[in-house]
Queue: 2 jobs
Job 1
Amino acid sequence: MYDMSTILQFLVNGIGIGCIYGLVAIGFAVIFNASGIVNFAQGVFVMLGGIFTYVTFKTGYFPLWLCAVISVMATAAIGAIFQILIVRPLLKKRTALFMMILATLAVAVILENAVLHLVGDRSFSFPPFSPGPPFKWGGVVLDRQMIWIVTSTVVLVGLLVALYRYTLVGKAMKACAINPQVASILSIPVQKMLVYSFALSAALGAVAGILITPTQYTAYHIAVPFSVTGFVAALIGGLGNPFGAFVGGLIVGLLQSYSVLFFSAGYKEVVTFSVLLLFLFVRPGGLFGSLVED
Amino acid sequence: MTADGKALLRIEGLSASYGQNDALEPSSLHVDLGEIVVVLGPNGAGKSTLMRAIMGLIATRGRIYFKGEEISQRPTRQRASAGVTLVPEGRGILGPLTVMENLELGAYGRYGRVPKHEIRRSFDKVFGLFPRLAERKAQKAGLMSGGEQQMLAVGRALMSDPSLLLLDEPSLGLAPRVTQEILQSLAALNKEGLTILLVEQKAPLALEIAGRAYVLRSGRVVAAMHTADIAGPEALAALYLGA
């Protein structure tokens, strides 16, 4: 039997990593909302967020918060370039959807290997944002970085939901995904919206990477696991729904955390993907459905 | 005509192809300010291609002039900003979005460029013209009937305050009564000064409101006439079939 503090500890752990998966999943949602494509390079943005922050922090010239800002901007720029150089030409050729997904996978592999050659295969980390001992309630330990993770995620999710629900730009992004030709008839700058969406998605991935690195590490090879798990979270929540993606992330985080507790670490992925299969059979649209599909 | 005597829309030698297939042979037509002009023709004549070409949705050869300026090389968004808008075949409404969101997006190009009260006035105009839309502001557009979706598509187009409204088969899939309602709304808009170029398969209904007509056959303009000069259905059928 497990005592309450153990159950609560794994709840805290699950919520923490769930928020990270949620941010990755939201990145999938943003790009899907704008373009209708699934971007399997999303995990690379998570990796780049951590790597860029580490590299700039290591120079000693900049405080950690500025390194994080630089990292988010640099990763967002890479997301924008990815859209302009890869996605846009392929969309113009009316490339089939599964080929688009393969293209995003190809870019993920290329960027992963580029990072490997530039910084090596070591793991990197940097200090947590608020140094100091963790908080303790009873037997439950709450890392200070965890508070940053949860708070930042909640704020970002709230801002994104508001973007799509209440702002013209958010609605225009949805219009671009639903029907880009109609969007252009409405004077919506479709190409610009796509660039913004990819930049935003990359920035979200970078934020996830920056938040999680002090508690784990970053390295060139973390991209694919984050892409896959983030995608699973996005599907569970409802592909294209930012709030759904956040909830999907929490579900996956909790599933993985309690799998470790009740089974072992080796069963994390088995449990996660078993639940995904269940959703695909019972509720393929995810918990909340999509924002851009009827 | 515009103030300087030129046509509001003038097309010269416009052609378009889909791959190897010529969908539109070099065609010329014009629409004067304040007119309703209808483009008629059988299935596959190139009518929708013509509309898409004017709006810049497909690559074309030839020239298009709007308000005296050549817009042939301009992208769709710039043509829309210049004052041309299209209600595409099949309506093109954004189904997952609400009626209100569709209408808001219709005015996308005007936000920040015109005072907010002018956009509010456009909403009032659309809801006055189509009261059913006012009753269904929060409804998802994809759940509306065909007739209501067509009203929404026209309303959304009006939100951009266009000088020229293009409509591609607005009666498609609609009952005759609803089609009549839509076309009467277009006639009312034209009386207020809106210039309209309309593609229609249901010729008799369209000819009731149009002043001039072009007939397309096999991708080419084969006839141009004032609607008052059309002798009757047999004459029109002869033009369709090339007899």
Job 2
Amino acid sequence: MDQQILLEKIAFNVMQGRLEAEDEGFDEGLEGKPAVTELVKEAIRDGVDPKSIVLEALTGSMEVVGEKFESGEYLIPDMLASAECVGVAMDLLSPYLLKAGVETKGKFIISTVKGDLHDIGKNIVSIMLKGAGYEVIDLGADVPTDRIVGAVKEHQAPYLGLSALLTTTMRVMGDVIEKLKEEGVRESVKVLIGGAPTSKEFADQIGADAHCKDAFEATNILKTMAH
Amino acid sequence: MIIIGEKINATLTGIKSIVQKQDGAGLLELAKTQAAAGAGFIDVNVGTGVGSREDEIVSMQWAVKTIQEEIETPLCIDSADPGVLEAGLRMRNGRPSLINSTKAEEKNLAQVMPLADQYQTPIVGLAMDETGIPKTVEDRLRACENIASACDKYRVPIENVYFDPLVLPVSTDVNQGLVTLYTIVEIRKRFSAARIVMGLSNVSYGLPGRPGLNAAFLHMAVYAGLDAAIMDPLNQTLMNAVKAAEVLVGKDRHCRRYTRAFRGS
């Protein structure tokens, strides 16, 4: 198959959220046609540049998924289906990317703060950022402040994402930022916060670098931070 | 089926201001309409998320006092803070109540289970521990086993436990409906004297047509062995689902409750 057509097919199937040939897509009648797994394997076999698969077939299509979610056309399961495709494609591609010396967009540490067990939103952000090419280190939920700050130092991560879903635990995000200052690493890491009760005003109040209302805003904000 | 009316919850917009302003008329309206619609318990959660623990204790005392002066429906005292639970129970002064809730976590159990003993009150036990809501049936059952062990330790009869199998949205993991249903089946088997309670609406988070999905899930959960539901008793779709499910599993003798709902209509 022509390389360009192959890349377009991968992108189309990411948007359809079809992992394997038997899968249903967002639209009807696609069952049985090759999906992301089969097409990515074919592309690797054909010697398509792994970097162009990521840039032309995965990243862009995930952005379209983000827009469709924003507009309400896509629902949470539609978005997760697409993100799952990107995740599997990245797993298939990672040995080749490594060989080609392609670097990730940087380490992103993500965590729900101490006292808060909610992890659904945090997990969605985690999946989306992996899809967008970041090396995501997910610390989980209810993570003590010291462990979060320790991970930032250990990995020398340029980005930290904090999540809280409770009005009682959102304040802990401020504690994390204070601790980063104490440990002298506040300047080396950008702190992004999110979660239902948080806001732009709250982010300013605790001295975070950005507030993200969802996973897509997070990817957009990260793009502007990189420049 | 025991219906626990969920509407008095200060994390909901509208209710928060009722609690903050101590709007007694507004609070009573919520309590009375739910009781009239068939709630067996009225849940009282006054945690607004702002203010101190002392504020929540004062709010709980006010809310319980205000409601019990007017209606006799049992109250479900709902807080994550054992001190707030105790304040509510003390104000109840022996009137029928339900404690909502404890997790299967040592510290939490040690603070809340003695209240169930001291006030001789049934208690909701969540099938989760300090690590969050388990994703598998086995781990949720392990949490229930821990709660059952704590019952022995704190002299709480297992008949006084309402296990909550918990439910996660199917929109983020399509297997979670079944995880909850299988957990209900297993709790029923292992702790036949205990009761099973659940909040329904979380299952449909992120999806369209939520009332229909919630009703379908309720049907399945009743078949699996659900005894009580934390829900909006003013929601006719759900209330009809309760009646339909109970008549179909033989829990409505001579179809009385089911047919009564159609009488005169």
